[in-house]
Amino acid sequence: MDDAKTNMLKEMTPYYTLNHIVRERYPTFRDALEDLDDALTLICLFAVMPNIKGDYNINNEFTNKSYNIQNQFFSYIYSKKLVRKAFISIKGI
After folding, report:
1. What SS3 state is found at 46?
2. How many CA atoms, within 13 angstroms, populate the side-chain half-sphere of residue 79?
């Protein structure tokens, strides 16, 4: 394929944003905070996963990023003293 056709296809490629979907699901900031536990659960799950080379190709960079995000969130919570009590169970905190 020549460069002109490649450039034309790149220009014609649609650009999608997910902002409207997020705003529909979380119309207020409070709604987003109430659903934050699901996102944090997934981040913590990926942070402790081993580097698996097989059917599930989870690379080390992804787990390291998840671990960093987890630690940044915990550091923020600790530095602002936002958690006074916690309930820890098998399903999480």
Report:
1. helix
2. 6
Query: In the numeric block, which tokens belong to residue 14?
Result: 């649609």
Q: List 52's β-bridge partners, or say none.
A: 58
Name residues whose C-beta falls within 8 Å of residue 76's C-beta, 6 or more positions apart in sequence.
82
Name the nearest CA neighbour of 39 among 69, 64, 59, 76.
69
pTM recorded for the entire structure: 0.57
Helical spans, DSSP H, in the chain: 3-12, 19-25, 29-34, 36-47, 60-80
Q: Which residue stretches of the chain have pLDDT < 50? A: none
User: What is the reported pLDDT for 25?
Assistant: 85
Break the chain into its structural domains and give their ranges. 3-80
